[in-house]
Amino acid sequence: MFETLFKKPLSGKNSAFTQHPLTVDVHAHILPHLDDGAANVEQSIAIIKGLQTLGYKKIIATPHVMSGFYNNSYEEILQSLQLLKGILKRYNIPVELEASAEYYLEDNLFRSIERGEVLTFGNQKKYLLFEASFITKPSYLIESARRIQQAGYIPVLAHPERYISLNNMDTLTRLLFNGILFQVNIGSLTGYYSKQAQETAEILVKKNMVAFFGTNCHNESQLKSIKSAFELPYFQYAAKENVLNNTLIQAQAQYWSAKIYSRI
Q1: pLDDT in tens, 63-84
Q2: What are phi and psi of 204, to 5 degrees?
Q3: Hey, what domains does the chain have and what are their CATH numbers?
């Protein structure tokens, strides 16, 4: 079933890929002063320049929103985005910036949804990136995803490969069939987070279950791991043919999203 979601089976060959296979990053902590990512504007610029070197033309900033830890409001995130965009323009750094958020799955998220104060990404502003406790029960994820869908958004689970409670294919398959899209961290393919996360990420790629790749970049030191992943066959395969990142800059996101859901 999952092998039919996208176009081609995974090749074991480490074939050369076209330069800059991904042009859009959907998960990056580059807005200054908001979370555990860039601590100041200088760090923001350094990370952005590093991502540009890797071939990214558009970066979607996704600061954490988590009650008691990262109390970032809708307005604060947009203000930080405008500040950074102005500085990049002043220094003639040509990159397209957009703001979304990495929402923690909690009651406050659903209150924000009710108020219409959530930041999503995509050409139709429909993809909602969220994370949860690393021991969250799958049933809670499914129930929450349904609430997100009922509000008119498409739930995208950040780095599913890192969740201990989701470390089996039956569970991940259930989530996918209940309309949750998966955003895998590029660094997971290198073992940056753990061997277990690497193995799960590879399986998700092989089964054509990855909708988006994200750098989840918090600092310059992560860029090396991200760059090394570009040479891996799992990344090459998915980045060239199967993930939706580049559709966000080519105005085709709605078409590909509809195609995915028609197959599951």
Answers
A1: 999 999 999 999 999 999 999 9
A2: -60, -40
A3: 22-263 (3.20.20.140)
